[in-house]
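Collaborator request, handled under Task 6.
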Amino acid sequence: MRVVAICAVAVLAAGCLGNDAEGDLAAPSGEANGSPGASTIGGATTSGTAAPTASITPRPTLRPIPLGDGPFRSPQKRMTGEVLAFVNYGDLNTVLPMLEYETLSTIAYFSVSLLRSGRLDKRGPAWAGWTGSTMDKLIERAHRKGTRVVLTAERFAWSSAGATEARALLGSATARRTAAREIAAAVDERGVDGVNIDFEPIPSGQSENFVTFVRLVRKALDAKRRGYQLTYSATGHIANYDVASLARKGAADAVYIMGYQYRGAWSKEAGSVAPLGGPGYDVTDTVDEYLERTTAGKVILGAPLYGWSWLTTGPGLHARTRGGSAAVFYRDAVKMAGRTKPGYDKVEQVAWISYRSGSNWRQLYYDDARGIRAKFSLVKQRQLAGVGLWALGFEGSEGPAIFDLLRDSFVQK
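Structure tokens returned to the collaborator:
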């Protein structure tokens, strides 16, 4: 079975094809079509037992925002749908002064790893970012505007080593209970509003254990304070996620579909990393598959703020690839497209350009404003809970344009 994957939820992938002369960048984390190789930048996923670390000192001003109409929007938000945006820990300082909180209902900090023991990894820069002063400012400013902040707790299983760690965690009742307690304690002590669980993929034979784990997290959060938001990230192809069971009472509030990385380094043909339509498996197919298993109000569709470029055999639409591929952040894609007139593929609903790189042809495909609006329209047509963004920081100076798109689609006039 083909796996179309992403990382919610996730950070940039280290080692997924290098940069080229046009400024193409490292790939967003995640896999697709069964092509392993992604890992996290700024600290690899680790195993074992975390070194002893003091608990977070609760800040009196950093308390969860009052409960509103359900686990997403708060009373003062004028939003018509959930907008869940991820921020990588390495981008906190850059992103903080740029955020427009009135267009964001939830900000997800990405991410702190779970070890095979169930302990949160408190040894690296991700935990330091989570407990640091920049995060203090983000939480305080977000809460002032009625925007929720959640922790992302992740365990990747794309590599054989990662799969072994994930099986050890999910397969142990003790490790599952430990992880649930650690997550609830981190959320409560930090004064935030919930958690996103990012396990990708779910190893074979662990589907039921993952449901049990999510239910344990729900129970541990409720023991601290009822009303915490609990979501989980899932790949574009449902694979081993038991979506129906994860949506039942006592489990998750919603699934965040990582609706991207449908193409990448393995692709034989250039095109969108998040095609809305097409002859192959696409984002619309993904949404419909999830809706066969759960209700629309339990689904959040994630959209990418990055595109992809390849060396190609020629300049034509969907040309054959010749390797040399790399991810391109939204900010860089817009600059590159500004040097020429981009085309627009009305089937996949994606902007694209062909350009010369020395004696070679390259092609870049990315969601421009028109493509992003099309995904927002799908969310409204299917009456989904809302939309997600992977990830704030990729847009750079184009941030105001992204926030305007969100405002036009999800903020009451």
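The cover message to the collaborator said: "The mean pLDDT is 88. The chain has eleven helices and 13 strands. Please let us know whether this matches your experimental observations."
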